[in-house]
Design a protein that fits this description.
The protein is built from 3 helices and 7 strands; from the N terminus they run βββαββααββ. The chain has 140 residues and is an alpha+beta fold.
């Protein structure tokens, strides 16, 4: 796996591309008129995307009918010298459709405990918590 990063303005805007040429923009979001996401925001996006892919894959194999899938991710940061790494991340998944809530919760559990490479990369320094909501109800 390899990506490239190129500066595309006179400030902090970078274009990152994977080997297939797919791109995202990274920027210093503490500056006015930022045009991309911050690198720390991209980590939260990566956690959501990785676990989201896992969950959809698992639920499709179980023939669950997903009509909508979204997530909200919040990261809590802590000061360590001059840096502010994540201490914890909380992911809330919102699913709609003909879905068994227990299967959706199990899919999230499998993602974070077994499959999600992004959250596994953050271990053991970052605690990742998750909640699953199916058709507006919290899965338990």
């Amino acid at each position: 796996m390899k990506i490239t990063l190129n500066r595309i303005n006179d400030d902090y805007l970078f274009e990152c591309a994977n080997q297939a040429g797919n791109k995202i923009l990274l920027d210093n979001t503490s500056q006015p008129n930022a045009q991309g996401v911050s690198p720390m925001e991209s980590i939260l996006m990566a956690v959501a995307g990785c676990s989201g892919i896992d969950m959809v894959s698992i639920l499709k194999k179980q023939r669950q009918e997903i009509t909508a899938f979204s997530a909200e991710v919040e990261g809590e940061r802590v000061q360590v010298d001059e840096a502010k790494p994540f201490k914890s991340i909380t992911v809330k998944f919102f699913l709609k459709g003909n879905i068994d809530p227990k299967k959706a919760l199990k899919a999230a559990e499998l993602s974070f405990e077994k499959y999600c490479s992004v959250s596994k990369t953050l271990e053991p320094n970052v605690t990742v918590n998750y909640e699953v909501y199916v058709n507006g109800e919290k899965a338990e």
